[in-house]
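Q: I'm a student working through a structural biology exercise. My instructor gave each of us a protein and asked us to get a predicted structure, then write a short paragraph describing it. Mine is polyribonucleotide nucleotidyltransferase. I'm not confident about reading structure output yet, so if you can add a plain explanation after the tokens, that would really help. Here is the sequence I was given:
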Amino acid sequence: MFKILHGSALFQRGQTQVLCTVTFDSLESSIKSDRVITAINGIKDKNFMLHYEFPPYATNEIGKVTGVNRRELGHGALAEKALYPVIPKDFPFTIRVTSEVLESNGSSSMASACGGSLALMDAGVPISSAVAGVAIGLVTKNNPDKDEIEDYRLLTDILGIEDYNGDMDFKIAGTNKGITALQADIKLPGIPIKIVMEAIQQASVAKKEILQIMNKTISKPRASRKENGPVVETIQVPLSKRAKFVGPGGYHLKKLQAETGVTISQVDEETFSVFAPTPSAMHEARDFITEICRDDQEHQLEFGAVYTATITEIRDTGVMVKLYPNMTAVLLHNTQLDQRKIKHPTALGLEVGQEIQVKYFGRDPADGRMRLSRKVLQSPATTVVKTLNDRSSIVMGESVSQSSSNSSQ
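A: Happy to help. First, here is the predicted structure for polyribonucleotide nucleotidyltransferase. I'll explain a few features afterward.
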């Protein structure tokens, strides 16, 4: 119905009419169950929900619109259970179906199941089958002598007055293959199983007829979601680049989410899920991530080699250094600055912009950060100093011997 919505449908049966819409969001928006519900049902996250609204104007009344009442909760839960079995388990979005009753004269919950099924297919959700529902009523005549049902009539798709004056409201929803949800409101002390079976058979016939009418409008889910719909992509970030991708204190991730509106969640150590509200936002996020994680000169670093580092910042815990211009600054801790124990880098006369020699010990396997040390270079062992600015190398042992010979002269 509406192109700007992720999915929408208007369903009317008799004097009951509902408007159903579908909205997608990231899996981070799924409902988190508490520990008690998780222990009982075994469901941790709920990525499908149906919101049922029954405003006063649906029955030609002017009333105060308040919070959700028990009736709306019950009808919404029934329609949600009717649709839940056909929702794909691996769908990458959280799905919210909203059903607003515009007109009501019986069985608005089953109309919500029908309208919700149409809206899901319009949104491109690959549901396994369309869902329809119908309410079966019952009118009985009792034998006063035997206190049993003498005669009865089953009513298909009952109206409000038939629900009010009748003896049963049996709601049945499902697909062409079976039943997904049912609920029976019975005013009698009990009914024979024969009547229950007849009601189910009568509802199955009506359900198939409704599905045939629905198939004339849309018979299967759309092949693709709408252009203005959200997008989810999975990106691989090597462990060596994770610190650069996240940034100090999560700066890069926060900046990315603020500028593009995307949501990033970590799947495992090297996999991140990126949710974007629109394809254009995903394109911006992809460019941003590519710029952050681009390869500079990291492949040239050799384990055990000595490099010239430039101090970019002095902190109480150490100094921030860079080995090449486009590199993310790395903390060189006070314990790795000198053989002596110091409390602040200024005790060694270090300043911003000063160049120092550091030894490269690979990356930390836990967080992927560079492991550098200046302290190990203060030993008299012969070490080759390499620089990324030019190709010249200096043998530390020779320079020490030359300086000592000059002092002896």
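A: Here are two points you could use in your paragraph. The longest helix spans residues 193-217. The chain has three domains: 7-217, 231-292, 298-408. It's a good idea to check both against the output above yourself.
Q: Great, thank you!
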